[in-house]
Predict the 3D structure of the following.
Amino acid sequence: MSFTGQTAWITGASSGIGAALAKALADQGARLVLSGRKVEALQAVAADCGGDCLILPFETTDIAALAPAVAKAWEWSSGIDLLVNNAGISQRSLAVETGYPVYERIIDVDLLAPIALTQEILPRMAARGSGRLAYISSIAGKVGVPMRTAYCAAKFGLAGYADALRAETSVLGLKVHTIYPGSIRTDVSRNALTADGSARGASDSVIDNGIDPMVAAKWMIDAMLADEREIIVAEGGEAKMGELRRTPDALFDQVAAMMAAGYADKMKSEAQQ
């Protein structure tokens, strides 16, 4: 199986995991919609992919920009087969030292923005009866990690949204993947926000010695094609932490069965009585 002939839309596609996913999907013959804030960087990724790409720059937290972006992306290739909500920002600061605006910024980017984009595209996918929605969470979305309280809050929240959405859309023909990367060799630590909201500006040894982004991207793609619902992309101690918090497939199946048995209809009916 592959994404050959399908259209994938990636946010945060200008670097790191997003750029690697774009290249790996292009290698499979997918058409790409590449989004981010930096047009020149997106153009460079498109050139590296050498395939059929639509460069669609926008700020993910600009809610007014989402409806026209979804319309343009959908019309460009008569639909989106895979939406990867990848854009995000991390944190490196102790809670006791961190200003509240840092929490607002990280939750806006890492949680509310992917929810907002999903809510715009979801009716189109539901009407068509097919499509995949992928969310890049983190091992820090499974395990509370020091110096990442805002990041953990956002990534745990994203996973909760994705799990509930998966249950709801299981009767609509859609597939939802939550991806939990560990340390990947990207600029995530360098771009992370510090206590006052400024960028850290430095990486760390764990990230610098992490998984190659292309290896991580192929890992993610293979797992999505295998219809894995939780995808842990990590090694060593990070992998062990993620596996300790892995949700059993039987639990996902149980919640999906509730929907198939008419749970939503029953709740609506009770509300009307």
Notes: The radius of gyration is 18 Å.
